[in-house]
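Aim 2, interim progress: modelling of the zinc ion-bound target.
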Amino acid sequence: MTDKTREVLDGIKDRLTKATPGPWFLDAGGDSGVYTEARPSNTSSDVASAFRREDEAFIAAAPVDVARLTRAVEAVLGLHTPVVVYELDDKNGTWIYDGDERRVLTTLCGECTPEFVLGEIEDGDYDGSGSDADIHYPCPTVAAIEDALNPKEGQ
Ligand SMILES: [Zn+2]
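Predicted structure of the complex, ligand included:
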């Protein structure tokens, strides 16, 4: 996950945390408005009101819906994590360094890359020459989430 996506998700979670605690609900008696038992002020249990009942239903469900969607996105991103493969010197089997940093050969998705490739990496048999089995990071799943959370101009 990119820093930008982490920032977007943290912003969503921060706004959720700072909102009046839920659950939020519509008045069962049919009065307009969105309410909570948390009493956001000393004089009222009102959270919001809107001109349309459907908008109030949307607002009332927002805290639960946002929490569920955020957890779902984080769960998927938590599965699709990068596997960084460092370059080895074939002559002596040691890491190749650029300054103080090991040279990165490639970065693959740990979830999408087949087990046999991950096994080759773990055994030091992966040559990095590239094959159709290599699923680079960010994989299509992560890229789709990143694109949705960080839309380009005009999207
Ligand atoms: Zn993946």
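The two ends are 20 Å apart (CA to CA). The chain has two domains: 3-79, 82-137.
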